[in-house]
Amino acid sequence: MVDDEFTIIDQYFSAIGWRSDLVALGPGDDCAVLKVPEGFELCVSTDTLVSGVHFPTDCDGGMVARRAFAAAVSDLAAMGASPYSFTGALTMPGIDHTWLFPFSSELSRLSVEFEIPLVGGNLSRGELALTFTVMGLVPPGQALRRSGASVGDDVYVTGHPGDAGAGLLLLAQAGGEFPALIDAYQSPQPRVKIGQQLRKIASAVIDVSDGLLADLKHLTDSSGVGAKVDVNKMPLSEEMLLFTSPGKALSLALAAGDDYELCFTANHSCRDQVEELVLSAGVAITRVGSIVDTPGIALFGEGVDALDLEHNGYQHF
Question: pTM score, two decimals?
Fold first, then answer.
């Protein structure tokens, strides 16, 4: 059989994962035809990941699928949206079945896990890169935004920021001593269920992809406020503290990207609701600061002057 575009699509992508009654016409035609349920609004986001920029050039297909999928679906989590459908465009230098098989297998697994069907896409020759467009549903007027934070709100973050950045360093060093850190980079977990619950709690939300400080600043800039962050409240994982010094761990937690956690603000009256969410979700959610009226992000706490923060987050250009 000749490895042309259509045989590759048929072999690896025609039977991807989840099936939804909301898909009237899926892959195979010029467009997908989708049914948008009455009483919902549609959230749409696109992410592109490029080899050598967003993941190491020697990554296997399964890891690329997990990271690209998480990057895209995390945006739905930040909006409080329920996954609805997605499309994928894959550019690759040639046909590599040893790469495509784990890529499509992982993509299918993730499609089922998050109940989001693949409804179309494109395959082309070129530098290895992947673009996902994801769509999600929210009740009218309930989509979470970056722009709702108010002075006095608490600032929270889910999970353990910085673990993925440490995992990337370990991969570069070919180190395998800290599997939880490597897994945080290779297999990030979008906080979709938490995002949906935050529709009742949060005043503003953003996903942490470029680093906590960088993304929190995007949130505060959108809201016309600033924030104070207590560095001593940052949730550093046990493996992170075994891997490196407390100062380096803190710098990674504040400025490394690739975590795909959620940073959000909420009125201080919602603290009990946040604690209940911690128990129901089984994920750490830590209050790390507060919203202030002075623009920018101010750090305080023991050791803050010794932090190495030459870059406050990932820069795309």
Answer: 0.92
Which residue segment(s) compose the domain that 280 sits in? 154-302
Cβ proximity of 238 and 184 under 8 Å: no
166 and 88, same structural domain? no
Per-residue pLDDT of the chain (317 residues; tens, 9 = 90+): 557 778 888 887 887 888 999 999 988 888 999 999 999 999 999 999 998 888 878 889 999 999 999 999 999 999 999 999 999 999 999 888 999 999 999 999 999 999 999 999 999 999 999 999 999 999 999 999 999 999 999 999 999 999 999 999 998 886 678 999 999 999 999 999 999 999 999 999 999 999 999 999 999 999 999 999 999 999 999 999 999 999 999 999 999 989 999 999 999 999 999 999 999 999 999 999 999 999 999 999 987 876 766 556 554 44
Nearest to 160 by CA among 192, 184, 183, 191: 184
Cα–Cα distances (Å) from 273 to 44, 198, 235, 245, 279, in that order, read 28, 10, 19, 34, 10
Residue 251, judged by CB atoms within 10 A of its CB (0-12, 13-18, 19+), counts as: buried
Do 91 and 181 fall within a single domain? no
Give the separation between CA 79 and CA 293, rounded to whole angstroms: 24
| CA proximity to 139, closest of 34, 207, 37 | 37
Give the CATH number of the domain where residue 213 resides. Answer: 3.90.650.10
Q: Which of 301, 259, 264 is nearest to 79 (CA)?
A: 264
